[in-house]
Amino acid sequence: MKCKLMLLVFLCAFGASAQETNVDQAAGLKRYIGEWVSTVSPESNEVGAQPDIKMVNVPKMEGTALQVEVFQFRNNAYVSILVELINHDVTTNKIVALGQNEKGESFSGTGSFSDKDHWLMTDHDFNGKHTQTVSFQFFSDNEVYLEGKDNTGKILWKTRYVKK
Q: How many whole angstroms separate alpha carbon 81 and alpha carbon 73?
């Protein structure tokens, strides 16, 4: 009986470790570098003549950090609506973010890539309140779908970007 129990413990431990993935978080973040524009709808990869959203992600620190600025087209000009610093933290092996929206609301986020194409970030305000969870699904190095949800799972926004 003891032998069977030990064998069961060994198999469970081996199975659990086999399911863990070791994703290179810094490499995943580097895929987000560049200038991106929104598509005509989240369900399409077609880009209109004047994209509603433009995002510029400038690499810093050899690409392990990104300076992000998001613009929205309003009154015939692109207006900055969000600035953010996103980086890979080697201590925790997480992706961390610090940003501010156009209302002046600041937030911090923490997350990681579960595999090379799926990235999840959880954002909080500076009172500790969950503001949103953002999922990123890379269809390729040049196309990514983003979806923001509240803590009940309700979709707050969604968009698809293609790299210019």
A: 10
